[in-house]
């Protein structure tokens, strides 16, 4: 039996790590997984997880791949001994949180380079062969932050919104070549190392930021803690959505790790001028402050709006 060759970016931790061992240990034995890491020095947890899941010895191979470096992407591709990748998972990503003006020099470029340009580089490296073979699946790790703007996540959301445009555009074209692309919309919160690895740390440098913004940021963080308590998902649960997409005979463009936040996404589309969404998200995130002021904020509250998440 010819195995399905899968290559995943960003497997040192979190969703990438769990997806790699999930597929490599699949009882069907039908996957050969190339789990790629930016830094091979960080492969310990992946091997540990593979051992714990009982992955057969030749089901998992680790390769170095830094999505910010085209040579590294090309070198990883050249190491795939089967000479083809059937399923590409563009998962590598980095978060950035805080007031826009608090982001350190280079931090914004770095996040856009990984999340957007890195995905483009990876797709450029692997898509031509899939198109030539008229076969292939691409899964891209999207985010609730790519479907709606969230305060203090402006740059992260910009990067994930950009992925929506990138992927939706490609998804129009690729089926002509027998290639299918799906976005796996994760979050808002998945238990991974994501928040520990935020570019510039948790919130950036707040020293030069005005007091009102700092206060709103503290309200936002309180809101995030609540979302975490109520809605955080385990990576193991989320990777099953990737497996569903991968196995779908006719894959959809978007899959969601939870439907809990879809009402907010719908609100954006239903009221295209944006008023309803902005009112709902303000109410959800800054509700404490609005209540203290005894008012509904600039646009008035949207009662019953679900909470927005941090990513
Ligand atoms: N966790 C959430 O709540 C959440 C929600 C929605 C979407 N997502 C998305 O899910 C994806 C995976 O994140 P996660 O939650 O699993 O967090 P994670 O544990 O921090 O995993 C992110 C992975 O991306 C890798 N990465 C960063 N820069 C890279 C580069 N230049 N080249 C290659 N790999 C690189 C990281 O490697 P290093 O360890 O070497 O930095 C790490 O392996 C990301 O795209 C993220 O935006 C996460």
UniProtKB/TrEMBL annotation:
PROSITE patterns: ADH_SHORT. Substrate binds at residue 143. Residues 292-311 are annotated as: Disordered. NADP(+) binds at residues 10-38, 66, 160. Pfam families: adh_short. GO terms for biological process: estrogen biosynthetic process. SUPFAM superfamilies: NAD(P)-binding Rossmann-fold domains (SSF51735). The active site is at residue 156. InterPro entries: 17beta_DH, NAD(P)-bd_dom_sf, Sc_DH/Rdtase_CS, SDR_fam. It comes from the Eukaryota. Belongs to the short-chain dehydrogenases/reductases (SDR) family. This is 17-beta-hydroxysteroid dehydrogenase type 1. Residues 300-311 have a biased composition (Pro residues). GO terms for molecular function: estradiol 17-beta-dehydrogenase [NAD(P)+] activity. It comes from Tupaia belangeri. The lineage of its organism: Eukaryota, Metazoa, Chordata, Craniata, Vertebrata. Keywords: Lipid metabolism, Oxidoreductase.
């Amino acid at each position: 039996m010819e195995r399905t060759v899968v290559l995943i970016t960003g497997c040192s931790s979190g969703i990438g790590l769990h997806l790699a061992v999930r597929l490599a240990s699949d009882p069907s034995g039908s996957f050969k997984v190339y789990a790629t890491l930016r830094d091979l020095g960080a492969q310990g947890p992946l091997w540990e997880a593979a051992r714990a899941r009982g992955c057969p010895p030749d089901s998992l191979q680790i390769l170095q791949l830094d999505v910010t470096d085209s040579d590294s992407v090309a070198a990883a591709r050249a190491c795939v001994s089967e000479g083809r990748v059937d399923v590409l998972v563009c998962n590598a990503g980095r978060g950035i949180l805080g007031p826009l003006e608090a982001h350190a020099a280079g931090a914004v470029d770095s996040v856009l380079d990984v999340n957007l340009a890195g995905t483009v580089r990876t797709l450029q490296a692997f898509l031509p062969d899939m198109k030539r073979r008229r076969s292939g699946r691409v899964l891209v790790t999207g985010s609730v932050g790519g479907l709606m703007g969230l305060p203090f996540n402006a740059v992260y959301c910009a990067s994930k919104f950009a992925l929506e445009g990138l992927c939706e555009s490609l998804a129009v074209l690729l089926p002509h070549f027998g290639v299918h692309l799906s976005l796996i919309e994760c979050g808002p919160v998945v238990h991974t190392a994501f928040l520990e690895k935020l570019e510039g740390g948790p919130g950036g440098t707040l020293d030069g930021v005005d007091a009102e913004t700092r206060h709103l940021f503290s309200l936002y963080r309180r809101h995030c803690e609540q979302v975490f308590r109520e809605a955080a998902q385990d990576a193991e649960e989320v990777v099953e959505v990737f497996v569903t997409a991968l196995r779908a005979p006719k894959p959809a463009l978007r899959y969601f790790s939870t439907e809990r936040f879809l009402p907010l996404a719908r609100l954006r589309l239903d009221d295209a001028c944006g008023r309803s969404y902005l009112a709902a998200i303000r109410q959800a995130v800054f509700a404490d402050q609005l209540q203290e002021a005894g008012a509904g904020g600039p646009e008035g509250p949207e009662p019953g709006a679900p909470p927005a998440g941090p990513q």
